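As a warm-up, study this chain.
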Amino acid sequence: MAAHTFAGSDDVKPLCFLMKPHRCSRANCAASRPPCPSHTAKKATEERRRQQRPGAGDRSNSNAVVWELEVYMRETLYNTAISAVVDNYIRSRRDIRSLPENIQFDVYYKLYQQGRLCQLGSEFCELEVFGKVLRALDKRHLLHHCFQALMDHGVKVASVLAYSFSRRCSYIAESDAAVKEKAIQVGFVLGGFLSDAGWYSDAEKVFLSCLQLCTLHDEMPHWFRAVECCVRLLHVRNGNCKYHLGEETFKLAQTYMDKLSKHGQQANKAALYGELCALLFAKSHYDEAYKWCIEAMKEITTSLPVKVVVDVLRQASKACVVKREFKKAEQLIKHAVYLARDHFGSKHPKYSDTLLDYGFYLLNVDNICQSVAIYQAALDIRQSVFGGKNIHVATAHEDLAYSSYVHQYSSGKFDNALFHAERAIGIITHILPEDHLLLASSKRVKALILEEIAIDCHNKETEQRLLQEAHDLHLSSLQLAKKAFGEFNVQTAKHYGNLGRLYQSMRKFKEAEEMHIKAIQIKEQLLGQEDYEVALSVGHLASLYNYDMNQYENAEKLYLRSIAIGKKLFGEGYSGLEYDYRGLIKLYNSIGNYEKVFEYHNVLSNWNRLRDRQYSVTDALEDVNTSPQSTEEVVQSFLTAQNVEGPSC
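Now compare it with the structure written out below.
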């Protein structure tokens, strides 16, 4: 910073203060004189006082007050200086960029706090400025606040940065390897931030540019870089539901892995296999997802970044859940939650990622009440970090909407569930195309809720309107799923089953039967005869036959089959058994078999008593306050159990 620029100008003195700590002139003078006995005694006294400050032993109340006042004054002076710089932003703008990154960020954050988003946007849209801001790692959560505010304000800063980086890469294509390597490092940081913030399309553009630079040199160091780039690219494509491109990305990564292997080099495959597991899970290829999660677990080492370990544990847990390996899933996800909280803290987005997957586990093991609490905690974190119209917030809203819907199914109180479903849809439609696959799931949840509200509605006109809206949402979700996954897929089958339930509510019984049978056939072929999803569809068809089509013999067989699967998977206290038991009581009443009516009334009473004892006071997070095992022990336990049981795929 040139000194002559600020000569005689009081309004820029804070910049000098920020760049250089102020020194006391008296101290400087004292340091130049030889010490006298009294001065030595004073120094000893001062030393004793210093020893009494925090972290160095006990201190008196007066010393504590003095120390806290000094800290307060330093912070106040610093904040005053920052405010003064911001007040003179137009004149100081060029000089602000020469400040250290932490101080520079604080100036920009003050712009955000004052609502000066246009000025902040003009700064952040410059690649050099934003690259420097990204180096202030301890301010990352605050950077998310600023960034999201700009996106909500209509400043397309994510797209501008991605475009600028892409152009920069095209300019340096003929430069030497060192220049390209530096650009790749910048791209990884920028793309990583955009990915963490949920702006997947822009992150994808950044990583594609990095990958292009990697391919310009067919040498071993660039092969390693290319693998890392493919892992990051696969992650953002998974997040953006670009599954067909994700498969291509994995194959490209394998090509580079093979090159390295032929030259006697090995890259750790944990992150790559974990992302492949996520891809296969999203496509409902559960057997393959489970197989690759095992391979990912084998690759975990003590040298891996904690983030990679946490993500692999999360994906492996989800794969175990859908394979109904609940004990394994519990161990993995609880350790992931513990690791994330211990390493990143309880307000970090990565911790919220683990909570969402923990909620998924709890929902699937029928601990519905606790799953709602966990999903709410995850949403709270994401709202505090991102806020605004952000895809991470939308997915948390959706998960909470569905768990709340399941939790309140018996009570019929769906206001909270509907609120979160509509929030999810509102955010997604604001930031993504109207035919984006993420909308299929959110629309499905809202349709389920609207159907239940319609059933309880006493106004026929309102009932018909709600049912028609639910119908439109279900059809839209079905079309999106078929376009992405095809006809023969679990997700498509779920949409058929949901349409079957809706047609029953609309009194279109033949159409309902057709949809339920189609759902059962697809699920049985993909998941087997005794899967939870099969039991759901079987129970829904039984309800149709029992309540509306008077096919009591068929209904009885289906109810008993659904009960058997539920008990086998979840035990005698499974919540879904209530609907089957009540269905059988109604069925036996209808055919005059009162002995069976009495029998199932007793069964239902016993079930109620069992439910009252289950999950009554347990706090789901209490179990993960401390981890009784190390990561190495958790991994070894999982792999040992897998070897004992043999392959389940």
